[in-house]
Amino acid sequence: MDDGLFKTIEDRVSELTALTVDLIRFPTINPPGEAYVPCAEYIAGRLRKRGFQTEFVRGDGTPGDSDRYPRTNIVARLEGRTPGKTVHFNSHIDVVDSGLGWSMDPFEGIVRDGKVFGRGACDMKGGLAASIVAVEAFIDHYPDFPGAIEISGTVDEESGGFGGVAYLAQKGYFSKPRVDHVIIPEPRNKDRICLGHRGVWWAEIETKGEVAHGSMPFLGDCAVRHMGAVLNAFERDLFPALEQKRTSMPVVPDGAKRSTMNINAIRGGQYDDFTGLPSPNVPDSCSMTIDRRFLLEEDIEEVKAEVTDILERLKRDRSDFDYEISDIMEVLPLMTDRDAPVVQAVADGIRQVFNKDPEYVISPGTYDQKHIARIGHLHDCIAYGPGILDLAHRPDEWIGIDDMVESAKVMAVGLKALLTGAAQAA
């Protein structure tokens, strides 16, 4: 156990807390993508003082990117004294809208009762702060370390990560030989290692009809009623079948160990973006957005066929039924091997800090690991960080200060093991 390294982190509790507060005070709300640039500049300024070379990378042309809301990422790199592996700590800086129900200013960064409150405290500015303090403590103790250390603050994870990690991965920032190991400090509980996530398929289904006067609907064809038939078929045939599917993946919570599908949105007929009274029209179009989460044991083509088979059956059996379906996004499930170097290194840290073996989990939803694996073809990647995922996106979001300190210790031990090979035997 590296008592000196741990003591250094413990002595920096106030600094870690203040860093978390500072990060929360940048209202990096996505959408639309506010305050990305000043937040990235703040991170860069801190890391430059520790000798890091910093680079701002804008996700030009990615969804939401504009001169008003540039998708600006910060990537910082510190070279060691001798050649070796590179460890990269990746955190997203964007947060969701604060929403209603807060008992305090969501962007003030209130410190109370051993916690830091604010939007993004848990997801995931506390994790970003913990990784920075862990790295700084490590380089103070091991200034002659081999290899290199990178820290990034990336954008748009909450909306798919296409302007952040996906864009950087396309540019080679998450591939060998530049990077060997990646730790993403997402809130997954301080004694858990998240190996990956379920798969996701987003799609839009449109049912078609024929417009007519609302007083004579028999002269038209109501697309909303056709969508009702789709919903009824899903309730009768698809949802019960999904309930029966189970995975061997250690997904948490337990309800996510089965296949799921969420009806994300339905839009049809007269929209509400008008003033006055609606016009009496039979709707000729209705669309539904579906969010299907699937398991390692499922094939993506079979997942899609479960939906399209129902739609084709309706087309055969229901008078005048017609539809179109289009993909929005698909990501295959992934799970890093427990024997992977980054898993073993962080597991060693958990054993040293908590005197117990880690719990290995899979996330019910995707996060930026998907782009690192899919685009960067780098599979030595996990999510590990402080915070309770259930608190993310909720009013009065918070992160425990002690949790950040302990997670920083784990990350520092993992960093030491990956760069120097100094791992404690299990």
Protein described:
The protein is α/β, with parallel strands linked by helices and 426 residues long. The chain folds into two domains: 3-197 and 333-420, Zn peptidases (Aminopeptidase); 199-329, 2-Layer Sandwich (Alpha-Beta Plaits), CATH 3.30.70.360. Helix content is 33%, strand content 24%. It contains ten helices and 16 strands. The strands form four sheets. A six-stranded mixed beta sheet has the order 1-2-6-3-7-15. The protein has a four-stranded antiparallel beta sheet with strand order 10-11-9-12, with helices on one face. Helix 6 crosses helix 7 (300-317) and helix 8 packs across helix 10. The protein is elongated and about 80 Å long. The model has no long low-confidence stretch (mean pLDDT 96).
Entry keywords:
4-stranded antiparallel sheet, 24% strand, Alpha-Beta Plaits, Aminopeptidase, alpha/beta, 6-stranded mixed sheet, 426 residues, single chain
As a whole number of angstroms, the C-alpha radius of gyration is: 24 Å
Determine the fraction of residues in helical runs and give it as a percent range: 25-40%
Helix/strand-derived category reads alpha/beta
Question: Any guess at the CATH architecture of the largest domain?
Answer: 3-Layer(aba) Sandwich
Count of individual helical segments? 10
What pattern of helices and strands is seen along the backbone? HHHEEEEEHEHEEEHEEHEEHEHEEH
CATH superfamily of the largest domain: Zn peptidases
Q: Total strand count, please? A: 16
Through-space gap between termini: 12 Å
- What's the story with the biggest beta sheet? 6 strands, mixed
The residue ranges in which pLDDT falls below 50 over 5 or more consecutive positions are none
Order of the strands making up the biggest sheet: 1-2-6-3-7-15
The CATH topology of the largest domain, please?
A: Aminopeptidase
What spatial form do the alpha-carbon principal axes imply?
elongated
Number of domains: 2
Share in β-strands: 15-25%
